[in-house]
Design brief:
Elements (H helix, E strand, L loop, with lengths): L1 H18 L1 H37 L7 E3 L3 E8 L3 E10 L7 E6 L4 E5 L9 E9 L6 E11 L5 E11 L23
Length: 187
C-alpha cells in the first residue's frame, strides 16, 4: 500500500515538475535571492552595531554636549496631524561630537539627526516627526533616546503636548465606583 502511495505521489511530483519546470527554477532563484538578501542585511546590522560600540567605548574621543532643546512642548494639535519637533545640541567639548543613534520610544515618532561629526562649538539637530494617527488623544509625553560619544552616552530628550479629537488613554477605572465588580474574597 505504501508503495502505491509513493508511486502515485511520485507521478504527481513528476507531472508537476515537468509542466512547471521553468516556474520552479524561477521560484528557487527567487528564494535564493531573498535568503541572500536577508543574510546581507543581518551582516550589515552587525557591522553597524560594532561601529556604534566602538564609538561609544573610545574614551579618548569623548566630548561634552549641551542640549539647547532637551524638552519641547508642541502645544495643542488635532488628531490626524503630523508635526515636526526640532531638538538642538551644541558640542561644548574638545573633540568632535558624534550622534551615534536616535531611538524613538514608540512607533508614532520617526527621528532623523545630524550624521556628520559636529565640530567643537557647532550645533547638531535632531528632527522628530510625530504622527498623531499612531498615538492617542489627550496629553502625550514622548521620548527619544540619543546616543553620543560622551561620558554618559544615552540621553533622553522628550516632547509633550495635547492631541484633541481622538480617544484618550487618560480614563482610569477607579476600583470603588458603584458599578465596579467587588474583589473576590478568600475562603
Amino acid at each position: 500500500m505504501a508503495y502505491v502511495f509513493l508511486h502515485k505521489g511520485s507521478k504527481f511530483i513528476n507531472k508537476f515538475s515537468n509542466t512547471n519546470k521553468y516556474q520552479m527554477k524561477q521560484l528557487v532563484w527567487l528564494f535564493a535571492i531573498i535568503v541572500t538578501g536577508c543574510m546581507a542585511c543581518k551582516d550589515g546590522l552587525k557591522a553597524d552595531l560594532k561601529a556604534e560600540q566602538k564609538i561609544i567605548s573610545d574614551t579618548a574621543n569623548f566630548t561634552s554636549v549641551k542640549w539647547i532643546d532637551s524638552s519641547v512642548n508642541f502645544g495643542t494639535v488635532t488628531m490626524g496631524e503630523k508635526i515636526q519637533i526640532k531638538f538642538r545640541c551644541q558640542n561644548v567639548g574638545s573633540k568632535p561630537l558624534i550622534i551615534v543613534s536616535v531611538r524613538p520610544g514608540c512607533g508614532c515618532t520617526v527621528a532623523s539627526y545630524t550624521k556628520q561629526p559636529i565640530a567643537v562649538g557647532d550645533e547638531g539637530l535632531i528632527t522628530a516627526e510625530f504622527d498623531t494617527n499612531k498615538s492617542h488623544g489627550g496629553e502625550v509625553t514622548k521620548y527619544i533616546i540619543v546616543t553620543t560619544n560622551t561620558k554618559i552616552p544615552d540621553t533622553n530628550i522628550l516632547f509633550t503636548g495635547k492631541v484633541t479629537g481622538g480617544t484618550s488613554n487618560d480614563k482610569i477605572a477607579i476600583p470603588h465606583e458603584p458599578n465596579m465588580p467587588k474583589p473576590l474574597e478568600k475562603s
